[in-house]
Amino acid sequence: MATQFIVNDKGEKTAVVLSLEDYEILLNRGNIDFELSDEYKAMIDNMTTQEENGQAKYKTLEEIQGRFLNR
Question: What letter would DSSP give residue 20?
Answer without folding.
Answer: H
